């Protein structure tokens, strides 16, 4: 299944899987980072929400100090801000209820401190509601779960320490103002003051410690620079306010309600505390934003590098395709070409040191080897044709002619010489005799040549073997292959299965068939307007025995010449001896068979060779 | 031409791998008093020293190894100008044309008429003699030319180029009398019967004015 896929498909699959795995990894990375970013964003929202509550403190604390009507207007403003859909901005913070409570607390604020002598302190009520809101916002926005040390401590200061601190300041200021009119005993007043002071002192210490922790957790000293000054100033201001307060207490047992000095000290303490709040809040926001930016940058970097990797892998896949599949296709094309054209000189031009390059070299070597093997085979065929005396009858007759002509030439020359020796003024009888003797020798030699030729065609019956003419035809066609190719002849065979074997001289019948086939090929040399088709068939007829036919699509034989073509020295070829068909017929007839010719349709000639079939048991 | 009496007896070389043909040819040539030398192959022929007498080569086309036609080409390349008569069992027209173009005297098909062969041999001898004669003349002339002094050779070149004695004198910076003296020496040493004869000799030797001014 997988094996049958094309290499390009496999590569595509591999590449696709790789890209998919990259995509999955990237997706989870993005999701993870998204969660972290969402987390930090929510924190930021919470922080901003808390920052928005800071004016509430400023206004309320100012009121605590001033006890004037001016604050009322600003309180209205606060209410308007709180009810004008701030909650809508704080997405995911369930603050609506607490906001409502704060708004109500704000509305309950009396115009002056004088109106608020009954029971609960309305300022503390507002601050308590505001603190609730801050804590809720901090919880809902994950601020309290902040993962980094610096931002964790900063948020602690903002969400718990500073609101408590400010509330404590307000409480103490309230205590100071309320002491006289309430008429409580001085001692109780003092104890309450000391308790409150203790709480504030420990708050200040805690805050200072938290800030130190934030410094420690911060890389560099940006936190220290941004917040350190403001917070220490605020702590110092609060402490000096405490000192002032204490001094006031000690001086008169009950503080002077009209002491502007103390009010100013309170104002300094609260304003420096809110200033520290602003600074810390700003630094917290900055850290959160920085974290979000960092996460985003890392996300982009991750996605970007993944994209680059994916692109690279696609590129590598493409290059692989190009340097593997393309050369392989070329290899295949050359192999096909070689198979179709039989041109073993074709080579692949692919220069590389990789496996494909080595394959190409091996392939080329194989082609060279094939080519030389084919050359060897050809040479062997030629050699076979020569050694098995399978000369065409044309070559054979030329050879015979030479063998006979040499002694004849010697006879003629010797005769002339003898005549001249005798005709000289002093006849040289010895030389003449020697010449005559050579004439006799050469005459015998010529006779011997003729005798051996005759013997060649009248071989012993013992030379005859039993064989299948189809095998014989295939052998001869193999030998004639080059000659057929040279004449651009298309070969067709119709060898009938199951023809009986014949008892014949195999070499002689080979010569007959080869002669007919080569004749047929040569007869079509002039044919240019149609296919040069040579058909070799075998069949079996009861009367004639095994019949082999050789059909050409040449110009055919003139009907008046049909009877002459088997005569010796009859030839239509420019360089023929006219012996071929005569010898063929004598060979076939010596086997008790027949050789005849008929016209082919639409043009050409059919030569029929009939050899009696050899039945089993027949001699 | 006039030296025929002193000439060595001409010789026919026969190269044929068939001994019966070789012997028949030998008998035929000897019957009319020609010298014959027989060889079975071109290599055997080449191993003998070249003849100083007029000679010709009767060469079989069909030889084992190097064919007769190839051997003809080899001889031409080696600058051996012996006239060749080809004999062959069956010669076709292209083969004949090739041999004749390459300078063969005759191309005979076996069996040949004896008179044709003998005529061809005589023709070949005549050709060889003429060639030898012209070669010898050139050799003699060159030998004579070598006996001239450098100044005489210079004068010969200028005189045969058509310059008058006065001009020659001016050219080589000697007196006219001296030029006449040199000319006399040149005519005598070269064996020239007339000035026209000398001009012909200069043409054969390729003597030309060395420095043209």
Written overview of the protein:
The complex is a heterodimer of chains A (619) and B (213). Chain A is α+β, with helices and mostly antiparallel strands and 619 residues long. Chain A has four domains: 301 residues, no CATH class; 37 residues; 66 residues, Helix Hairpins, CATH 1.10.287; 150 residues, Histidine kinase-like ATPase, C-terminal domain (Heat Shock Protein 90, 2-Layer Sandwich), CATH 3.30.565.10. In chain A, a hairpin with a 3-residue loop joins strand 4 and strand 5. Chain A is rod-shaped, with a radius of gyration of 62 Å. About 1% of the residues of chain A have low confidence. Chain B is an alpha/beta fold and 213 residues long. Chain B has two domains: 129 residues, Rossmann fold, CATH 3.40.50.2300; 58 residues, Winged helix-like DNA-binding domain superfamily/Winged helix DNA-binding domain (Arc Repressor Mutant, subunit A, Orthogonal Bundle). Helices cover 54% and strands 12% of the residues of chain B. Chain B contains nine helices and five strands; from the N terminus they run E-H-E-H-E-H-E-H-E-H-H-H-H-H. The chains are: A alpha+beta (619), B alpha/beta (213). The interface between A and B is medium-sized, with 28 and 22 residues.
Topology at a glance:
The complex is a heterodimer of chains A (619) and B (213).
Chain A: H1 7-66, H2 70-83, H3 86-89, H4 96-107, H5 122-140, H6 149-182, H7 186-217, H8 222-252, H9 260-341, H10 355-387, H11 393-423, H12 429-457, E1 465-467, H13 469-486, E2 490-495, E3 502-504, H14 506-523, E4 533-541, E5 545-552, H15 580-590, E6 594-599, E7 605-611
Parallel strand pairs in A: 2-4
Antiparallel strand pairs in A: 1-3, 4-5, 5-7, 6-7
Chain B: E1 11-15, H1 19-31, E2 35-39, H2 42-46, E3 55-60, H3 68-77, E4 84-88, H4 93-101, E5 106-109, H5 114-147, H6 150-160, H7 165-172, H8 176-190, H9 195-205
Parallel strand pairs in B: 1-2, 1-3, 3-4, 4-5
Helix pairs in contact in B: 6-8, 7-8
């Amino acid at each position: 299944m997988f094996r049958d896929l094309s290499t390009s498909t496999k590569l595509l699959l591999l590449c696709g899987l790789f890209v998919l795995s990259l995509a999955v990894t990237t997706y989870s990375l993005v999701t993870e980072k998204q969660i972290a970013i969402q987390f930090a964003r929510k924190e930021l929202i919470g922080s901003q929400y808390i920052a928005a509550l800071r004016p509430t403190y400023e206004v309320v604390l100012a009121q605590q100090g001033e006890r004037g009507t001016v604050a009322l207007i600003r309180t209205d403003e606060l209410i308007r801000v709180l009810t004008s859909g701030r909650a809508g901005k704080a997405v995911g913070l369930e603050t609506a209820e607490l906001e409502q409570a704060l708004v109500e607390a704000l509305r309950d604020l009396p115009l002056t401190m004088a109106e608020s002598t009954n029971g609960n302190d309305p300022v503390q009520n507002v601050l308590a509601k505001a603190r609730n809101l801050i804590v809720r916002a901090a919880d809902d926005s994950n601020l309290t779960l902040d993962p980094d040390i610096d931002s964790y401590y900063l948020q602690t200061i903002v969400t718990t320490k500073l609101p408590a601190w400010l509330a404590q300041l307000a409480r103490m200021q309230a205590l100071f103002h309320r002491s006289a009119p309430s008429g409580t005993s001085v001692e109780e007043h003092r104890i309450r003051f000391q308790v409150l002071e203790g709480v504030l002192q420990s708050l200040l210490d805690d805050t200072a410690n938290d800030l130190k922790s934030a410094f420690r957790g911060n890389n560099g000293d940006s936190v220290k620079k941004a917040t350190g000054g403001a917070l220490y100033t605020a702590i110092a201001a609060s402490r000096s306010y405490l000192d002032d307060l204490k001094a006031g207490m000690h001086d008169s047992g009950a503080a002077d309600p009209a002491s502007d000095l103390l009010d100013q000290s309170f104002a300094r303490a609260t304003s420096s505390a809110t200033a520290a709040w602003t600074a810390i809040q700003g630094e917290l926001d900055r850290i959160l934003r920085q974290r979000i930016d960092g996460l985003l940058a890392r996300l982009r970097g991750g996605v970007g590098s993944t994209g680059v990797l994916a692109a690279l892998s696609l590129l590598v896949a493409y290059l692989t395709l190009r340097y593997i599949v393309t050369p392989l296709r070329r290899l295949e094309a050359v192999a096909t070409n070689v198979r179709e054209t039989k041109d073993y000189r074709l080579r692949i031009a692919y220069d590389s040191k990789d496996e494909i390059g080595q394959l190409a070299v091996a392939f080329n070597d194989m082609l060279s080897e094939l080519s030389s093997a084919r050359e060897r085979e050809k040479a062997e065929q030629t050699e076979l044709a020569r050694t098995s005396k399978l000369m065409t009858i044309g070559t054979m007759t030329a050879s015979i002619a030479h063998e006979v002509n040499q002694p004849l030439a010697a006879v003629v020359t010797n005769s002339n010489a003898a005549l001249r020796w005798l005709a000289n003024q002093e006849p040289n009888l010895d030389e003449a005799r020697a010449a005559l003797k050579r004439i006799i020798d050469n005459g015998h030699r010529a006779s011997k040549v003729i005798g051996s030729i005759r013997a060649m065609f009248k071989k012993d019956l013992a030379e005859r073997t039993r064989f299948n003419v189809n095998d014989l035809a295939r052998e001869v066609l193999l030998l004639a292959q080059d000659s057929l190719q040279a004449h651009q002849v298309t070969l067709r065979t119709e060898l009938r299965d199951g023809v009986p074997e014949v008892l014949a001289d195999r070499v002689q019948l080979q010569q007959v068939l080869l002669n007919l086939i080569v004749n047929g090929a040569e007869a079509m040399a002039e044919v240019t307007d149609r296919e040069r088709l040579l058909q070799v068939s075998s069949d079996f007829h009861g009367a004639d025995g095994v019949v082999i036919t050789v059909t050409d699509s040449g110009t055919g034989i003139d009907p008046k010449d049909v009877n002459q073509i088997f005569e010796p020295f009859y030839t239509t070829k420019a360089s023929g001896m006219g012996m071929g068909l005569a010898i063929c017929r004598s060979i076939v007839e010596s086997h008790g068979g027949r050789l005849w010719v008929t016209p082919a349709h639409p043009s050409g000639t059919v030569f029929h060779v009939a050899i009696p079939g050899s039945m089993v048991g027949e001699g | 031409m006039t030296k025929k009496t002193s000439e060595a007896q001409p010789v026919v070389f026969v190269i044929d791998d068939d001994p019966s043909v070789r012997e028949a040819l030998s008998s035929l040539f000897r019957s009319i008093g020609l010298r014959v030398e027989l060889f079975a192959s071109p290599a055997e022929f080449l191993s003998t020293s070249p003849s100083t007498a007029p000679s010709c080569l009767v060469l079989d086309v069909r030889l084992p190894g190097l064919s007769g036609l190839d051997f003809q080409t080899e001889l031409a390349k080696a600058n051996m100008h012996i006239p060749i008569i080809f004999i062959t069992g069956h010669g076709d027209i292209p083969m004949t044309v090739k041999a004749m173009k390459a300078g063969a005297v005759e191309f005979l098909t076996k069996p040949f008429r004896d008179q044709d062969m003998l005529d061809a041999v005589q023709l070949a001898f005549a050709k060889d003699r003429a060639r030898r004669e012209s070669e010898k003349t050139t050799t003699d002339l060159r030998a004579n030319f070598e006996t001239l002094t450098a100044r005489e050779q210079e004068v010969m070149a200028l005189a045969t180029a058509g310059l008058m004695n006065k001009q020659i004198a001016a050219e080589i910076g000697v007196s006219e009398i001296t030029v006449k003296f040199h000319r006399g020496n040149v005519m005598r040493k070269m064996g020239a019967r007339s000035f026209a004869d000398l001009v012909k000799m200069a043409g054969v030797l390729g003597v030309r004015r060395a420095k043209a001014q």
